[in-house]
Automatic annotation (TrEMBL):
Pathway recorded for this protein: Amino-acid biosynthesis
An annotated Gene Ontology molecular function: cysteine synthase activity
Protein name from the UniProt record: Cysteine synthase A
Pfam name, any one: PALP
Cofactor dependency: pyridoxal 5'-phosphate
Source organism phylogeny: Bacteria, Pseudomonadati, Pseudomonadota, Alphaproteobacteria, Sphingomonadales
EC number: 2.5.1.47
InterPro entries hit by this protein: Cys_Synth/Cystath_Beta-Synth (IPR050214), P-phosphate_BS (IPR001216), TrpB-like_PALP (IPR001926), TrpB-like_PALP_sf (IPR036052)
Biological processes per GO annotation: cysteine biosynthetic process from serine
Catalytic EC class: transferase
Keywords, sorted A to Z: Amino-acid biosynthesis, Pyridoxal phosphate, Transferase, Transit peptide
């Protein structure tokens, strides 16, 4: 058994997450499907990577100084990552979040010492959108910076320099496809760019939930949303700076119902407790795998992102009353006798 040397800083715990073969998904796709276990980050989500890179970038540029404040508008996970990184580096954190996100995310942010402001969910064009509110706060508070994860390309740089090389090394340079959903676009664009730098033939696919506009954009050139989704942190209606130039080869649209089927199966059969975005990602990876197999690549290997832990959604995805209210399938073990 190899024991690694101790880390010199808690921030070094971000990244280098494990990669696991998903047996059920692999059987469904007819090829190997792998999940990058981003819930193993200190803040239990993939967003820790972006948080670290954005804060370090602000330091290098001289915008964030000792005793300063990091302000961000987020669905929750980026805020949690920012709060942890800021704590480790001596900064304050203010998070603006839509009030329809999970209670667990709100409680976690408060527990981490972040100042939390909740606002009603609204369209991006509305000046009261959580991103605009957070940006204005940063402009008004001395010593504060706005992380701006959607258009701050330090976000995707975290995946170009971190996630993509990790995947390449973990799979020994044999990876045929990668897919995940887009929220800011940093992960799909950054991993795509990073993997293409190793091998331009790696197939990069967007997995979009209903209610988002990117599927139609990459399929038909039009930003058009259809349907809706309860998934938190994914789904986008515009081309963010992080998405500009993203090397998208394929696109899939996945329903909440299909995503929840994989959330249930991965927990029941493989012991992975995940959020809906991870279920949607896995369903998309299966679709990409099937497409590659159909093209004759029967030994294809596809990777995706397991974004965060299901423990962050106990009051929603793992609550029978909430699922029934949303018209989503209820896990068998949650049903009343």
């Amino acid at each position: 058994m190899n024991i690694t040397q101790p880390f010199g800083s808690t921030l070094e715990l971000i990244g280098n997450t494990p990669l696991v073969l998903l047996k059920g998904a692999s059987a469904a796709a007819g090829c190997e499907i792998y999940g990058k276990c981003e819930f193993a980050n200190p803040g239990s989500s993939v967003k820790d990577r972006a948080a670290l890179y954005m804060i370090r970038d602000a330091e290098v540029r001289g915008e964030l100084k000792s005793g300063g404040t990091v302000i961000e508008g987020t669905a929750g996970n980026t805020g949690i990552g920012i709060a942890l990184v800021a704590n480790a580096l001596g900064y304050k954190t203010i998070i603006v979040m839509p009030d329809n996100q999970s209670k667990e995310k709100m409680d976690t942010l408060r527990a981490l010492g972040a100042e939390l402001m909740l606002v009603p969910p609204t369209k991006y064009a509305d000046p009261n959108h959580f991103q605009h509110v957070s940006r204005r706060m940063a402009e008004e508070i001395d010593g504060a910076i706005w992380a701006g994860q959607f258009d701050n390309t330090a976000n995707r740089k975290a995946h170009i320099e971190g996630t993509a090389p990790e995947l390449w090394e973990q799979l020994g340079g044999k990876i045929d496809g990668f897919t995940c959903a887009a929220g800011t676009g940093g992960t799909i664009a950054g991993v795509g760019m990073g993997l293409k730098a190793f091998d331009e033939n790696v197939r990069i696919a967007l997995t979009d939930p209903h209610g988002a506009a990117l599927y139609n954009y990459f399929a038909h050139g039009e930003l058009k949303a259809e349907g809706s989704s309860v998934a938190e942190g994914i789904g986008q209606g515009r081309i963010t700076a992080n998405l500009e130039g993203a090397p998208i080869d394929d696109q899939f649209r996945i329903s909440d119902e299909e995503g929840m089927q994989w959330v249930e199966q991965l927990l029941r059969e493989e012991g992975l407790c995940l959020g809906l975005s991870s279920g949607i990602n896995v369903a998309g990876a299966i679709e990409l795998g099937k497409r590659l197999v159909g093209e004759g690549r029967k030994e294809a290997r596809v990777a995706t992102i397991l974004c965060d832990t299901g423990f962050r959604y106990l009051s929603t995805l793992y609550n029978a009353d909430w699922l029934a209210e949303k018209g989503l399938p209820i896990f068998g073990w949650l049903k009343a006798d």
